[in-house]
Amino acid sequence: METIIRKTKIHCIGLLLRSRCGSLPFHNVGHTVEVYENVLKIGMYGGRNLEDLEPVLLAALFHDTGYTTVFKGHEDMSVIEANHFLAANKYPVPQTVSVIGCINATKMPQQPKMPLENIICDADLFHLGTGSFWKKNNMLRTELAKFQGLNYSISDWNTLNIKFLENHRFCTSYGVDILEPVKQEHLKELKSNREKIQHP
Question: Domain named HD/PDEase: which ranges (predicted)?
Answer without folding.
Answer: 24-138
